[in-house]
Design a protein that fits this description.
single chain, 562 residues, alpha+beta, 7-stranded antiparallel β-sheet, 29% helix
């Protein structure tokens, strides 16, 4: 009696055992009907009576004896028991039913387009039910593209993982002469051009020196025992580390004074187009400064992400004009008012909008019966909306032109730029640059190659990987890709791990005049970047708020996803 109640298991059987009993009961009930005498379900009878076209039932026997195209439901067995075909065969079922060993759980039914939709096991008893949940996922749903060149990616990567069927032995155990030559090439901004394919990369000194050259970046301040990137959310990694400046105010003053000199030096290099870009990494936000001519802009720009209402209000009070590129208001990009008169004008417009929003109440004649919100309530509501976007990608701030100089002075004098408590207390922000600047220290990204055995159809095959860790800047990512293009014969796969607060730096700023853009591009020839890398970073960003996550090259053609 208990078995006649669906879903009831008095002996607390395991789910696979309960499903086996359901299948057996379904077979015994179905065997009572001769082929062709099975009654139509009620919805199908109603549709036939109305003369509506129906999709034919899926063919019977979707188990192992069915067509080769049908797939077994992966949720049919949740334990480690062998499949039904491995169980001892039983006698054939009555009325000519198939043997036990040839029957399997009613798998997912094929759609009209012959695609197998995954269904939950709890609904297999009612495959015709429209409420049956379906789960589907395809990598093709992710945004991707295929081209001979990658788009510019202005985010900072924390890790690159390359895999290939060709070994990466050329990237390890550099000789002393090759390492020294690579450092000299970086300092002198030597342009290295490699052939499309290299016969024996391990013996190619030019390739190994260029690889060493691409791993160099410049940092300030430098504390070998303390990780200085990333700074957002780094409290756990810095906890317990020795920080002699944490309680010494005089030492903090010296560090901040030295940092201000380095920051000013970087800005001067950027303004004279001798440095293409640099990053300022604080414990709260990250700033990307870009020279005029990069990312399609004809003026020097700075992007700050993420921001808070407090930072934005402080910038307004300092007279810094900025915009919120991802926040639009009344069809226009929201800008911070530069003067008090403009602020009053914006307030007047806001009041007019407020009055118009309640004009429909007067038309209906019910304005006296509904309480109109006062100015304080409306102000609090607007402030709530501003606070809600804090710490989000939408809070990114764009500063252009001479306002970046005002931003420089604001950051140098901003006391909240440095944490006052915690593991990062008293530590100035991290400066990251592709070129040397005053007070900077040369650093190297860490690279190591690993050889593993990967499972293949006929056994195992050699799979080679190259891992690069550290703050991977945009120019470094492109340089390494160009080297792998030649060293791996145009065939490799890359997994890119992004520092998420910097992904929004790929938004599209205002585009420069075409003729002016060419002139500015020529002035950037001495900024220290490879001409191909400079050409890529000069283009308008295409990734929006996203960044490159996966790159695959086949036959010298990139296929990437963001």
């Amino acid at each position: 009696m208990a078995l006649s109640v669906p879903g009831y298991s008095p002996s607390f059987k395991k789910p696979p055992e309960t499903l086996r009993l359901r299948r057996k009961r379904g077979r015994s009930l179905g065997a009572a009907w001769a082929p062709g005498e099975r009654p139509e379900p009620a919805p199908r009878r109603a549709a036939l009576a109305a003369g509506l076209p129906l999709r034919p039932f899926p063919a019977a026997g979707r188990g192992r004896g069915g067509p080769a195209g049908a797939r077994r439901n992966p949720f049919a067995r949740l334990d480690n028991r062998p499949p039904a075909a491995a169980e001892p065969p039983e006698s054939p079922e009555p009325h000519g039913g198939p043997p036990r060993g040839q029957q399997e759980a009613p798998g997912p039914f094929l759609d009209s387009d012959q695609e197998n939709g995954l269904q939950w096991e709890g609904n297999i008893a009612a495959p015709d039910s429209p409420q049956t949940p379906r789960v589907s996922f395809s990598e093709s749903d992710l945004p991707s593209s295929e081209s001979a060149e990658l788009p510019a990616d202005w985010s900072i990567k924390t890790r690159l993982l390359f895999t290939s069927s060709h070994p990466f032995t050329w990237a390890e155990h550099l000789k002393a002469q090759e390492e020294a030559q690579g450092l000299v090439q970086h300092c002198r901004a030597t342009e290295v051009t490699l052939p499309p394919s290299i016969q024996d990369p391990k013996l190619c000194t030019k390739l190994r020196c260029a690889f060493q050259q691409s791993l160099v970046y410049w940092l300030h301040p430098a504390t070998p025992w303390l990780p200085l990137f990333p700074r957002i959310g780094a409290e756990r990694k810095m906890a317990g580390k020795n920080s002699p400046w944490a309680t010494d105010e005089e030492l903090q003053h010296v560090l901040m004074s030295d940092w201000s000199v380095s920051f000013t030096s970087l800005y001067n290099l950027l303004k004279t187009k001798l440095c293409p870009y640099f990053y300022v990494c604080t414990y709260q936000f990250t700033i990307l400064f870009r020279a005029a001519g990069l990312a399609g802009s004809d003026v020097l720009t700075a992007l700050i992400s993420p921001t808070t209402r407090g930072i934005r209000e402080a910038m307004k009070n300092e007279g810094i004009e900025f915009s919120l590129p991802l926040i639009k208001e009344n069809g226009r990009q929201k800008k911070a008012p530069e003067a008090s008169s403009e602020h009053e004008e914006v307030q007047a417009i806001s009041d007019e909008d407020e009055d118009e929003s309640f004009s429909w109440l007067e038309e209906m004649g019910v304005q006296d019966k509904i309480k109109k919100p006062d100015r304080l309530s409306i102000k609090l509501r607007k402030e709530k909306r501003e606070v809600q976007m804090d710490h989000r990608p939408e809070s990114v701030v764009l500063v252009k032109g001479m306002n970046t100089l005002t931003l420089l002075n604001f950051l140098i004098n901003c006391k909240s730029l440095v944490a006052s408590s915690g593991p990062q207390a008293g530590l100035p922000p991290t400066l990251l640059s592709p070129v040397a600047f005053r007070g900077s220290t040369m650093q190297m990204l860490k690279a190591r190659s690993v050889n593993v055995k990967a499972q293949a159809h006929a056994g195992y095959k050699d799979q080679f990987s190259l891992e690069i860790t550290g703050p991977v800047l945009p120019h470094c990512l492109h340089s390494v890709m160009m080297l792998l293009r030649s060293a791996q014969s145009g065939s490799f796969t890359a997994g890119l791990y992004t520092h998420e607060p910097t992904a929004v730096f790929n938004i599209n700023p205002p585009v420069a005049n075409g003729q002016l853009k060419e002139v500015i591009h020529e002035e950037l020839a001495n900024c220290g970047l490879h001409p191909k890398t400079l050409n890529l970073l000069s283009q308008v960003p295409l990734l929006g708020k996203s960044s490159l996550r996966h790159v695959e090259m086949n036959d010298y053609i990139y296929n990437w996803r963001s």
